[in-house]
Prior knowledge:
Helices cover 70% and strands 2% of the residues. It is mainly alpha-helical. The chain has 2 domains: 2-195, no CATH class; 207-436, no CATH class. Strands 1-2 form a two-stranded antiparallel ribbon. It has a two-stranded antiparallel sheet with strand order 3-4. Strand 1 (113-114) and strand 2 form a beta hairpin. The radius of gyration is 23 Å and the shape is globular.
Amino acid sequence: MKDRGEDLRQLEHVLPLAFAFLLPYLDYGLILLLSLFSFFYAAFISPRWIRVTTRDSERDAGFSTGKLYYALGIMLLLLLFRERLHVAAAVWAVLAVGDSVSNLAGRRWPWVPLPYNREKSLGGSIGFFLAAAVGSWTLLIWNLPRSDGSSNLKLAACCLLGALVCALAESLPNLVDDNLVIVVVGAGIFPLLLGAPDLIPELAAPWSHAVGINFLLAGLSVMVGWISWRGAAAGLVLGIGVYLSAGPAGYVVLCLFFFLGGFSTWLGKGRKEALGVAEENLGRRGVANVLSKGLVAGILTLLFFWTDSTVARVAYTGALAAATMDTVATEIGQWLGRAPRDLRSFRPVPVGTPGAVSLAGTLSGLVAALAVSSVPVLWSWVPASALPALAAGAIAGNGVESWLAGDGREAPGRHQVLNLYNTLAGACASGGIWFLFCSPATS
């Protein structure tokens, strides 16, 4: 009965998409009126009259947060893209079809739980990607103005890439509802891809250089005991992608993050082992570490194949600066920190307490983050005006992680989830602060 209710809920999730086929024929005022009705339906009608699609917790609360976010997301899309309703329709399709198929596929074929989010599976993510790609392409073609001269190949590539980014975002452990996450990410990625003059990937460096350098560094990292073989394989894929898309400047940022993290783990190893807080597996990072620290930066670096966006470069650097500060602050704090404190209560806590911060660790982490941030500035890959934003992003990312870690919860993979929040907050804060306050457009 529960599965039947979930299946019907996904049907209810997809059915409103039929109105997206009417967008070219309806007056914009009527479109907004229908979107307002959808919000009224989600708030009052569905939770009370269509209770079979309402989850137990929602029945007790009297409303469905997910349905409200769905309706709110559609309203935002229609308001943001009044002059480009084909974009709104494409993102709507990702939300409606992709998310529903992800739920259905994830429950029926829960292949391989994701290492950074055990509540979701590879089967569900693959289902999301395929359904979102087909659905967004169908609605995009249907609503595309006749004056648009984009080729079918470009439109298909936009939908494939947009669906992939949205699938990755949906797979992350989210602090807010998935529906809103998909809308926000889709509203950002689809206009960027559709506005690019050409979607043929432009390599920033030769394949031979990318493969050769990464194989060499992966082998050396395994030999010195900084990473496991499986972790090296995951890092190899990430490193090749970064080198090809971001070029030497972006790749050096990634390498400096890895070097500072590995070196700080080695420092004070005896004291950490005596306190029982040393990194597991003799300090070797595994696949989960690589993904949790590098996934956000990896997603951002995909954009560099098709667009030269300074905001994306700043956000990419901000993600790795936050990751660097987190690793170095933790390792140096456990070595030299004598009075770590809980960020929530500011009370002294034992060394190694999740979420604890110390003066020695925080200052060391900030210096490391500034070192990582300075490299792309010296390389002229990001502007010097981004340095304050990158420092603020690193601090924000680590503040978010320490605050969340201080709630006392313990669960398998929670540390990796917090790493994702750290890098995501660092990227968003760095890119957002630079764009709003430091970019040439605001000066």
